[in-house]
From TrEMBL:
Residues 504-587 form the Glycosyl hydrolase family 31 C-terminal domain. It holds the Pfam family Glyco_hydro_31_2nd. Residues 785-795 have a biased composition (Polar residues). Residues 195-495 form the Glycoside hydrolase family 31 TIM barrel domain. Its EC number is 3.2.1.20. PANTHER family: ALPHA-GLUCOSIDASE, ALPHA-XYLOSIDASE. GO terms for molecular function: alpha-1,4-glucosidase activity. The lineage of its organism: Eukaryota, Fungi, Dikarya, Ascomycota, Pezizomycotina. Residues 774-803 are annotated as: Disordered. The keyword Metal-binding does not apply. SUPFAM superfamilies: (Trans)glycosidases (SSF51445), Glycosyl hydrolase domain (SSF51011). It comes from Coniochaeta ligniaria NRRL 30616. GO terms for biological process: carbohydrate metabolic process; N-glycan processing. Belongs to the glycosyl hydrolase 31 family. This is alpha-glucosidase.
């Protein structure tokens, strides 16, 4: 798009060679974007849509191989992956079909509906207590998915709003036969990639619906610092502006743009104080009521609009009026941003209608807020906004706000699935409920392994998320995982680069990477980056084991926390969350007050991690190619026992103390290595040259799990019958019977299922410790007759948390 302040990059017209139509006056048009992605169109007037839609921004693909069979009454299009059949009439189920060559139930027939039965996401979780219906994504269990784009908002050639011509049909068939990653990559090619987030957005956010004063808010931030809990973003909910003291003749204070001077007598000084403490600041905006006469900037906006202020009439919110939107951004918001507001939390909740039918105000707000935020690029490093999902294409306007969730176990239990499933459409706790230390701790653990972590709560004297307001055990868990979140920022930013440049979201459902049928039966479990698997605990601890449990499936291979090709149930105390790292994993971490190591290595296989960072000494890398980022390559060569770190020292002035933790490996160490929390630590210091090699032991392996010690620890804590504990102990560690016989004896015991499941998890914790004569034999003969899992306490040992 050229011209206009709201222009943005696009290439909406497809290559003519990829288009199949009946010629002049034809009412149908098909575009073969790839050999697995097809656009279909029907138009009563014989004209077709080449403008950008909210979903489709880049339709100019390389032309794939395909052939056309065209007769008087029918049309067929054949690629390597699908076969289209069409009767050349208005689209119907009988007249338009696409058969995908791979898979069962493989023929799609036109019905004007979206289809993607693996789900996508939803506009909001407001008031949701547990599972809610999700809009379709573009991934499916069937070989095809369909995205109907007939009603989406359009943009003209200068980036302004456009509407659809009636009686036109416009949609896309994704014929990917379960190749989910390929489907998502082409989705991003068509719709645009996820923008790169600023590094600070990946840290901890503080937010609360509460009428803070400037002093109270700064004291809060200082309390976090004194407790050693880092923050990078401070959010002010709606009480930053006048709410309670709005004169009745103007309505209520839901919308507002004038600082509440009773709470913030000197906004400029307050915002500077937050910036001086290293925080970026977002404020809440409910724009529906427009700009009213009591607002500080009412006359300024009115002047820009030539609006008569003599009657004190409100300036109506009309986001489809270009003149109003110019004044909204260039006068109203610009003057507030000059004071120090970094980005906006667009909290639109007033429906989907505007004065122009078919244009959703949430779409308008998300799109133009994001484009306008580019003017803050010197402050923000990268544009940013914070709002709800508006439909396919919303991934271009990060960050997504899921709405006001209820504080219940049912609500938490849906959160991991909701987050993971949103990736199927590229869209990579709050109020009510009851106070629960355990629930809060589990929620923060999930947040730690989510794309964004924001602490938030409702306007209630009884409800807030300050860690120090909870009982000691919960406080320690919250603190440690909030610290861990910041230590993960090097990893998170690199995953951010991977998502933006390589179209690989950080959160991916298990079925994206595994065809096993079990992979689709664990919706709450997900990949967090390429090598970590997270299975959050979203239910209360067992009263018998005092452990929280969750159902998990792990693919074949040895993992630092688990090794099994089957479905199991894993159990952890409140201080731990199941996070699994496979052999051959490298994870970079920032230092912290309690741990200085910067790299974690899980031995057992070769590993590589390409760390990407922005050049802290140069200008923002916004809009620059991937090559403009500072690159550090970290490699572990398993068979040779070589650790290699290659730094880009020419463009980076960042000083880093390199300390490497070999997780779950304590059996071998040299003089310059020490044992620490189930790991061996190697301090390398500050590297003097661009590349450093360290030669260690060849073919290092993870330690064999001490099953009796683990079992003893678990049984000792169980609130169960002492005699039963003795029977179980003897059965697992001393009974000479074959494993399958002892398993039958275990199932015959009258014990709680939670205890039995916890025993099984430990019993099969390491196939190398599971000899043919019994679990305590410590054999290393590679016995593989029984599935096994490794229950090293990853959350504390892998990430260096305190005991």
């Amino acid at each position: 798009m050229d011209g206009g302040r709201y222009s943005f990059a696009s290439s909406p017209k497809a290559d003519p060679k990829a288009i199949v139509t009946g010629g002049k006056g034809s009412k149908y048009r098909f575009t073969v974007l790839t050999d697995r992605l097809l656009r279909y169109e029907w138009s009563d007037d014989g004209q077709f849509e080449d403008r950008v839609s909210t979903f489709a921004v880049f339709r100019k693909f390389d032309v794939p191989d395909f052939r056309v069979i065209d007769t008087k009454d029918s049309l067929e299009i054949v690629t390597q992956f699908f076969h289209l059949y069409y009767d050349k009439k208005d689209f119907t189920r009988a007249g338009l079909a696409v058969t995908v060559f791979l898979g069962n139930d493989n023929t799609w027939r036109y019905d004007g509906q979206n289809f993607g039965d693996l789900g996508g996401t939803a506009r909001t979780l407001d008031n949701a207590d547990g599972r809610i219906p999700l809009e379709p994504g573009i991934l499916a269990q069937k070989p095809y998915a369909v995205l109907d784009d007939s009603k989406s908002m359009l943009f003209d050639g200068k980036g302004w709003l456009g509407t659809r011509v009636p009686n036109r049909k416009d949609g896309y068939v994704f014929a990917y036969s379960g190749d989910h990653k390929a489907a998502i990559k082409d989705f991003y090619r068509l719709s645009g990639s996820q923008p790169l987030l600023p590094r600070w957005a990946l840290g901890n956010w503080w937010s609360r619906y509460h009428a803070y004063s400037a002093t109270e808010y700064l004291d809060l931030v200082d309390h976090f610092k004194s407790d050693g809990i880092p923050l990078t973003v401070g959010v002010l909910d709606m009480d930053w502006h006048r709410v309670e003291d709005v004169p009745a003749k103007y309505g209520i204070g839901w919308t507002g743009y004038s600082w509440n001077r009773k709470l913030f007598p000197d906004p400029d000084r307050f915002l500077k104080a937050l910036h001086d403490r290293g925080l970026k600041i977002a404020v809440n905006d409910h724009p529906a009521d427009g700009i009213r006469a009591f607002e500080d900037l009412y006359k300024d906006v009115a002047k820009a609009l030539d609006f008569d202020t003599s009657h004190e009439d409100p300036i109506r919110f009309d986001c489809v009026d270009k003149k109003f939107l110019d004044a909204y951004f260039d006068v109203l918001k610009y003057k507030l941003e000059e004071q120090g507001i970094d980005f906006w939390w667009v909290d639109w909740q007033q429906g989907t209608d505007t004065t122009i039918p078919g244009i959703d105000p949430l779409w308008v707000l998300n799109h133009f807020h994001y484009l306008t935020s580019k003017r803050n690029v010197e402050v923000l490093e990268r544009p940013l906004t914070f709002s709800r999902y508006a439909g396919p294409g919303s991934h271009r306007y990060p960050i997504g706000f899921s709405g006001d969730t209820l504080i219940t176990w049912a609500s938490l239990a849906f959160q991991p699935e909701f987050t993971a499933t949103a990736s199927n459409i590229g869209y990579g706790g709050h109020y009510w409920g009851t106070r629960s230390n355990e629930l809060t701790a589990r929620w923060v653990q999930l947040g730690c392994f989510s794309p964004i972590l924001r602490l938030h709560s409702e306007k209630s004297h009884w409800n807030s998320k300050e860690p120090w307001k909870y009982e000691r055990d919960c406080y320690e868990v919250m603190k440690e995982f909030l610290i861990l979140r910041h230590r993960l920022i090097p990893f998170l930013f690199t995953m951010n680069v991977r998502a933006s440049y390589d179209n690989e979201p950080i959160v991916q459902p298990m079925y994206w990477n595994h065809k096993d049928k079990e992979a689709s039966t664990v919706p709450n479990q997900y990949y967090f980056g390429p090598d970590l698997i997270v299975a959050p605990i979203t239910s209360p601890n067992s009263k018998a084991t005092l452990l929280g449990g969750t159902r998990a499936w792990l693919p074949p291979g040895r993992w630092i926390d688990i090794f099994t090709p089957s479905m199991i149930k894993v159990h952890r105390p409140l201080s731990k969350i199941p996070v699994f790292a496979k052999e051959g994993t490298i994870l970079p971490l920032d230092v912290s007050p309690i741990a200085s190591h910067g790299v974690l290595v899980v031995v057992g296989a070769d590993a590589t991690f390409d760390l990407y960072e922005e050049d802290e000494s140069g200008p923002s890398a916004a809009g620059l190619p991937k090559e403009a980022l500072v690159h550090t390559s970290i490699q572990w060569l398993q068979s040779h026992g070589v650790l290699r770190i290659s730094q880009d020292t020419k463009r980076s002035t960042r000083k880093r103390h390199w300390s490497v933790r070999f997780v779950g490996q304590t059996s071998k160490k040299s003089r310059d290595m020490r044992t620490e929390d189930y790991s061996t630590v190697l301090d390398l210091g500050e590297l003097k040259s661009g590349t450093s090699y360290k030669y260690l032991y060849q073919d290092l392996q993870l330690d064999v799990v001490d099953i009796p010690a683990r079992l003893h620890e678990m049984l000792y804590r169980c609130e169960s019958n002492y005699q039963v504990k003795g029977i179980v102990w003897e059965l697992v560690t001393e009974d000479p019977s074959p494993v399958h016989v002892r398993m039958a004896k275990l199932y015959a015991l009258d014990i709680e299922s939670d205890i039995r499941d916890a025993i099984l998890e430990i019993w099969f914790a390491d196939q190398r410790a599971l000899g043919k004569e019994g679990a305590g034999s410590r054999r290393r003969d590679g016995f593989t007759g029984t599935p096994s899992l490794n229950t090293t306490p990853v959350t504390r040992s892998l990430f260096g948390l305190r005991k």
